[in-house]
Queue: 4 jobs
Job 1
Amino acid sequence: MKRLLSVILIILLSLSVLPTAGAKNEVSVTYVIKPSFDFGDVGDFHEGFAAVEKGGKWGFVDKRGKVIVPFIYDEVWDFHEGLAKVKKENKWGFIDKTGKVVVPLIFDDVFSFFEGLARVKKGNKWGVTDKTGNEIVPLIYEDVSDFYEGLVAVKKSGKWGVIDKAGKEVVPIVYDGIRFFSEDLLAVNKGGKWGFVDKTGKVVVPIVYDEIDYFLEGIAKVKKKGKWGFIDKTGKVVVPIIYDEIEYNFLEGIAKVKKGGKWGLVDKTGKEVVPLIYDEIGFISEGLAAVAKEGKWGFVDKTGKVVVPLTYDLVGSFCEGLADVKKGRKWGFVDKTGKIVVPIIYEAVAGFSNELAVVKKDGRYGVVDKTGKVVVPFLYDWIGDFYEGLALANKDGKKGYINKEGKVVVPLIYDWVASCFKDGLAIANRGGKWGFVDKTGKEVVPLIYESVREFSEGLAWVKKNGKWGIIANPLKTKNLPVKSK
């Protein structure tokens, strides 16, 4: 009896541990705070603090579970750049990590801090404040954007422009619309036409286009008089404005263009490297483009050469050197020479990832390698993508994880398992109870909780008997504030 009391005393004064029932090996969970809080809701830890709710009001606790910010706020957001936005009596402001109000709660709306500044609104006017509450940009604007390299777009009297952190106007407030910077140029609209200005406000692309897109790889698509083309950052037309449609910007140095109902590919000089003879063109992947003609699909390279014949009813895209192709109702894979490397016998396939592809046959899922060899037998109702060597699998309504060899590493006994591991652990549920499993299948946090949250900054919330507590990640307990309460 004396020994038992000593053990209990040690637990209460130092770490609180709880053995896991039913796990592969006996393990312990380390409590920072035992489930004792009657919080209504809890948030993840950010910058060392977690938002918590009690009686309809919000506050913050630190990693030891100590209430640092009292439950006086109607709404709070996570800490960002050392400050958290909070709401009380329909007004917003900011607090620091001691709970001190550093930006008074006088605003009707605020955004979190970015680059040391935050957008704030009072009435129907916007401005910008710093972390001490000083108004860097006065509240005289109808709208403001986030800062970008010291600049912010503002709207006043229905017009847009750009000012710096000192409030100096660098792009005159004369434009009807603005799309913020892409590759250091600002898209502006005036009188229904679009162009680009630089950071000094100088017009570098004339404001003559009906539509424009953002710059990518130094080129932007533009529309004029119903036709599309591309310009460079000096405003020079590099791809003639003659096309009926351009589906997206340049990718791998080429772009899809359509004219007269047919599709082809152009390079950045405007050369039609793939003639406009195709009914459809898919995305470019690994240097090849999927093309369709008269209902059949294949692949061409960037010179227009057909490398996979147009004999398939449907194709996907190349991934890890192979592309999924369909004939009739069956799928398989071809390489870049058009050779069939995985037979076209499957009801469904997913693209290759980490040298493996999930495939379906006779209503069951398995996995094949790049030679077509079945490495995971067709036993499963569903298999997810492999990530860090493991894939989520489902069989007869139960979930677990398998490895690349098909070995079950996390038993398929769970009603729900997270789709991936975070910090080495995955949330799992069985019979309405929650816990965590590791990549070996060990229940390192026993499934005894009514609710759990994902680990963040090494800690996770757990709920038992209606009370919330905090546990440490058993894989990363070093330097964490573990103790009892």
Job 2
Amino acid sequence: MFLIYLLPILFIVYFLYTRLTSPLSKLPGPFYTTLTPLYLIYQEFSGNRRTYIDSLHASYGTVIRISPNECSFSSYQAMKQIYTSGAPYLEYYAPRLAEFFDNLNSKRSRSVPLANDFVLEAVRKPNPASYSLLSKLQSKASELEDLSAAAECMDHLAAGIDTTGDGLCFLMHELSLPHNAHIQQRLRDEINSNQDKSFDRLPYLDAVVKEGLRVFPPIPMSFPRYTPDSGTTLDGYYIPGHVIVSCQPFTLHKDPVVFPSPEKFDPQRWLEEKGELERNRMFFAFSQGARGCIGKHLALAEMKILLREVYEEYKTVLGKEKADMRFDDQVISSRPKGQKCRLQFQKVV
């Protein structure tokens, strides 16, 4: 009978001891995060993980513990170390992905900057040879299993369509607000006075797109990684091995030191020389490092081309029917909560 009462007590003591003596116990954060991940799971399933973590950073600083085995950071130093240092921070989702994706990542070249030149050249001079090559590849029997093929399609649809579309949706709505009419007009003036220039040679267009992605990052939530088995030190705190660490664009992009008046939509900030280095290195809309978004340059090209074509001939204003444009976090990206963006397109005379 005594053992029946003793075993639960010993389990509770062991549970509390391991939680409270962990190196993570030194990290700032609510006390309950040391005991259970249930509150974080609740926030995630209710679609509030992003705002919950952001509120904890606002209360506790750049380093917080958000569950017994997970931490969040909002400093440039931590972001650089986690995503661009070359250290073996394993992607949190990697063990759950198919072997196909592991092989693909292991063979992918690190010469990603070449992607920018390729995208620009492809946009300027479409080459029919690539379509001929694709048709020949299509005629061959696929080596992909049905499940892998479906996963590939889903990955391309989610990463290549939803994110860019959602980003444009929020950005064009912001440009259509009455108090941003001067921004839209300045953008139109630059486009119309530089008809002979390519979309990547328009500085204010570039600033508008960057500011849109800063304020409305299509994937604003955490990009989780596992720490290496040997552990690591981030922002002065020792983090044991196999702990989930992450940064989220939604919080990084609101650093008031790097982005004064962070809640304000202000493309002009990207044209100022002062703080240029800090702004660009804190820009996290596409993640960073070797595992950053491989379609970054294509997405930027799509956004700039569409905005140039629209605002060269049209003025956009809010529609008569209001739409709920609050962030609504999905599995991968965020979109308007009302699932609609109501705009009117007025021909510019």
Job 3
Amino acid sequence: MNFFGHATVAAWSPSATPAFVLGAMLPDFASISGARSARAAHEETSRGVTLHHATDAVFHAAPDFVALTTLARGHLESGGVARGPAWAAAHVGVELLIDGTLVTDDGACQLYLRALQDADACVACGRDDAPRLARFLARARDSGVPYGYADPRFVAARVERALSSRSRLALRSRHVEVLAAVLAGVAADVPARARSLLIDVRRGLSAMALGPGGEPEATR
């Protein structure tokens, strides 16, 4: 699940705070920005990080996510994309398209924006990583809610950029158009699949005795 999806899951909790929502996104922020030392500096943010990992465990095993990524990967390989880049592009591309179905949730959007604004007080990281994280957060604040994730062509460009620094996973320039076409082809199935997938995530978190608020069910 990509970071906006994590924000949405965190926002399911009636007691969700911006600090908690930030924690649910923090591992993704650390990975994307390269600020690997980034860590929670607030109790609510720490709970959000716990929710992040639990959510990913359920999300990535969900039948609807597996079906969408398998379909996209197969079409990419048929279009000449090598196995490694096809796997990565399908995985990230489907995650972003799913996020694109969630940006209509006004409550999640507001918590997402507030989490970005409050991030500096809730996160700590090493001296070398601080500028990386600051640059990423500044870009995220400037970009606002990622409405572009509803557009397969926008998503394809974002995936190409995300993979460009990974030599074994980077897409060749001619394959960006292939990816855009593949994502456009699967996009019609994404809304229904996303609804079913989020039901699985709720059930999975409950089965792990972890509610959407990130706290053990017995204490909720």
Job 4
Amino acid sequence: MSPELLPWLPVAALALLAIVHAAFAYKEIFDWEAAAVEVLGMPPEVARACAAVGRNQGLSNAALAAGAAWALVVFRLQDPAWGRQLATFFGAWALVAGVFGYATFHRPGFLVKQALPGLLALLGAWLPALLARGVE
């Protein structure tokens, strides 16, 4: 990897994580029924009955998006070490949520759309620091 691009790796990974979870939050808070039918395969009547739970889940995704954005700002503008800790927390949260979503609903989209951005955030946060120390 180009040394010039290395400092931007955590920024790109955290931006992806924030954007993806902001999109999840929007769909779950404002369009839960359609999202539940489309993504989870729920019958429309079940999606309607679970709407309050879905909106609550959307709020959790909004918190994850805000946390990833916070980690990005701290990492880039304030203190990379503290930003790395925040990125570790929010990246791990997304990774675990994606794996749990897959285990619960058996839909690979959870691994690709949620767990993978979490993993990329973890790699983005730690890879530059490890390479700077000479660990390859």
